[in-house]
Amino acid sequence: MADGYKLPDDEFNSLREYIYKKSGILFTGRNRFQLEMKIRERLDKTGCGNIPCYIKYLGSPGSVELNTLFNTITVNETSFFRDRSFIATIEKNVIPEIIKTNRALGFGQVRIWSAAASSGEEAYTIAIMLAEQLKGELSKWSVRIFATDINDDVLKACRTGIYSSYSMRNAAPDIRQRYFRQLDSDRYEIRDDIKAMVIPGKCNLMDTEGSKKFNKLDLLLIRNVLIYFDAESKKKVLKTCYENLKPGGHMFLGHSETLFGFDNDFKLVHFVNAVGYRK
Fold it and tell me: Sign of dihedral through CA atoms 111, 84, 227, 161?
């Protein structure tokens, strides 16, 4: 297809409606070009000459093309210890409180959900910070960090726990030395006990029933995700988030995201370096 490939309006609308129904992700006129650039490769690979044919192919028995489509259209930019203000808040305020509260209640466990976790850097960053603060107690605690995404490809990286030096660019040298094994000049593997804390899994955030198992959460990270949803989808996802947190549990959105304008029961919490929400 030519570089200037453009979907007819009716086909673009049909495709974005299909994607929206399946994932809650909404492509608007502003990101139309992004979708068109990504979909043309799939049309070529599947031999479909137009969107009606492609949508039919997506729903054909035994087809795995829907997974491939999700892998193609989702954005997965992430790294270890990304966003220092957020990291500082989790490290200095949230994790100490979780440990103190659960210890006082006699709970030697922590439950965290990193939704839309991509290749897992965020989840493993949280695991490392927990290990730093629990120190010798770590083996006595049950830590479960659910790292979910709709994209199968990035989840494979999360499961292996092997990352490039570029993904590690924000990790301090002593963190690299203590929590990673260097495989070669450009690859690092997360320590086994840290890897055991993270549970990768596929999850569509619009699947309310499938999301219920990530419950009784101390902390929920759903960062840079809601920007892809329309108002109705956001309300649905936020309702699930609220129900899955335990009383007093924290939720954090992306730096540019807010719950302003949405009716919800979350309490806004102002930290020195970030803003969060609490049940």
Answer: negative
